[in-house]
Amino acid sequence: MNAEVRAIKSAAEQGLAVAYKAARDTLPGKVVALRDEAFNRFDARGLPHRRVEEWKYTDLRALMREAKPLAGPAGAKHKTGVSSILTGVDLDTLAIVNGRYEPAWSDDKAHDPGVTFSELFAYLAENPEYKVDQLPGNGDTALLLNTAFMSGGVALRVKRDARVVKPIHIAHVFTGDAAAAMYPRVVVIVEPGAQVTLVESFTGPEGLDYQVNSALELTIGDKAKVDHVKIGCDGAAALRVSTLGVTVGAKAEYKDFAFTLGGAVVRNQTFVRFDGEGTQASIDGASLLKSRQHVDNTLVITHAAGGCVSRERFKSVLDGESHGIFQGKIIVDQHAQKTDAKMMTRALLLSDEAEADNKPELEIFADDVQCGHGATAGALDPGLKFYLMSRGIPDKEAEALLVQAFIDEVLEQIAHEGVRRALMFAALKWLGSR
Amino acid sequence: MALALGQALGRAGNLNRFIQVCEDENVALLEVKNLHVEVEDKKILNGLTLTIEKGQVAAIMGPNGSGKSTLAYVLAGKDNYKVTEGDVLLDGESILGMAPDERAAKGVFLAFQYPVEVPGVATMTFLRTALNAQRKARGESEFSTPDFMKRVRDTSAHLGIDAEMLRRAVNVGFSGGEKKRNEILQMAVLEPRLAVLDETDSGLDIDALKIVSEGVNRLRSPERSMIVITHYQRLLNYIVPDVVHVMAKGKVVKTGGKELAIELEKSGYAQFAGEAA
């Protein structure tokens, strides 16, 4: 037991305590005991700061100045839709607006017969056997806050052997005239043999410093095939922490991609545990950052069963005074023999003021494994740029071509063509606006 | 030059007109005047003077460290090469203040000694982006897709470059010979007026050398000048130069006809060791 000496609570910590006290009896669902326990654990610890190793580069105590009031209900649906970056991609959208499931903002077309879904608290009431916070990542401070304040969300179940063709889009939207905080939670259970593509997007207004603390619990059954793509297009002043907890069964195929373009402070924390043998997984990401954006991709990948292959590839392009962080930890349990895990992270710095921090870690307790990691950070190769320019390609265009090639290499990991193209186009637009 | 003279005679109505045309035809494409260049405070070129006429193929030979590659890079506009004195004129206009892409649009092309790999950029995309960027800079319209494809296909077939190679990222995983052939393909597609071939023969076996040389020879034209930089005479058996310049210690120390190359092959470069000191 570490006794932590905490002199004073920050304004945000005090604000969270006040907000919890005020909201505790009116928050939805019959989960007050769960909320209380989570909040008390949070309150004892406070917001994570730089002396907490897992949060070393994202000092939330410093970055989160105040606790915003909880977001109110959504208004009328935006004319622009829920995520402009995905315009034209055929998706089955479930909208979570201001932290609550909003049927009026969601697609009212018939959903795939292989999928059942319910509002989060309705699901928890009807399925008492499902306990939240049982997945990897439980105990994380940001997740405790999400549990305490859970405002709503959806629960999806993909039936055994179902092949869901159209991607399911979970669109997190903030709409409001003043900054607010929201704590959505999504539960997805993919039964054995089922196939599904899940797209999560985060959007909100440019000028407001709203706060999102989201959680996705994903349970992947044996021989299931799941693609999950998370698209962060938050407004430029937003603060978002998203926790993803995943357990994967045997002989499954799991692909995860985190794409981040927006937000002032963003942390994508992903906790994955392989519980069954023979699973193949790729956990990838791309960030394109400018001005003073701070984006942290943190992974903890636990190989708890043997014979699984995991690949982690994260790339970031950092312009302006932006700060890109990658922390990746691969843990191989003692019995997880024949594990094959490789992690790679590359940061491309487009300005002298940008900063990249890469922290790969391996914790291996088995003796017959193949594990490796590589991390690089650097500017564009001047020799490469000269080669392009010597062929007549102007300075900016040469840079754009090289950056596009750099980021497309990882975007190509996204299996769904429409989503992949939409993100490649978004990257191109980002480059064009430099 | 005989051809140029013949054309001039055919067109000239009187002596004055003849002289005028003669002067036009003889105008140098490239004039390097008393060029002094430093790289990281080290003097590499020491008053190099060189004239390349329109349509001329000039070989530049010389020992290691004589400044041949530096000259190539300075012509193409690479960073970190500091010109402390002298000038480089293309069509009488100084190019030293121009960025590499501006020089390329004016018709300067460098075939690299060590072509770099460009991961993630398909060769076709690269060629097309380069060609259209040059055309745009010159105020010309962009190439249509069919015209562009035709131009690439015609040339790549001659160079033994297949469609698969064109789809792959530029030079990534290419053998040394493939990289050099790709340089010549780029040259053929971009149609420069001044091509600088920097040790294009290095790392090539005899078959690859023949393919590359044939590719270069097909591009010889009265409208195109070439500077062929090489260490060995071997390449010049295949690409026969109009003139041979010998460089030592950062300047041209001897100029002669193609027989000069053969002479050098026998006598070596030792005779020039003291020349520019």
Key phrases:
heterodimer; A: 10-stranded mixed β-sheet; 10-stranded mixed β-sheet; 8 helices; 20% helix; B: 277 residues; 4-stranded antiparallel β-sheet; 10 strands; disordered N terminus
What does this structure look like?
The complex is a heterodimer of chains A (434) and B (277). The termini of chain A are far apart. Chain A has two domains: 266 residues, no CATH class; 55 residues, no CATH class. Chain A has a ten-stranded mixed beta sheet, with helices on one face. In chain A, strands 3, 4, 6, 7, 9, 11, 13, 15, 17 and 19 form a ten-stranded mixed beta sheet that branches. In chain A, a hairpin with a 2-residue loop joins β1 and β2. Chain A has 434 residues and is of the alpha/beta class. Chain A contains eight helices and 20 strands. Chain B has a domain of 192 residues: Rossmann fold (3-Layer(aba) Sandwich), CATH 3.40.50. By secondary structure, chain B is α/β, with parallel strands linked by helices. Chain B has eleven helices and ten strands. In chain B, β1 and β2 form a beta hairpin. In chain B, the strands form two sheets. In chain B, strands 6-7-8-3-9-10 form a six-stranded mixed beta sheet, sandwiched between helices. The two termini of chain B are 34 Å apart. Chain B is 41% helix and 25% strand. The chains are: A alpha/beta (434), B alpha/beta (277). Chains A and B meet through α6 and α7 of A and α4 and α5 of B.
Give a quick precis of the structure.
Chain A starts with 10 loop residues before the first helix and ends with a helix. Helix content of chain A is 20%, strand content 37%.
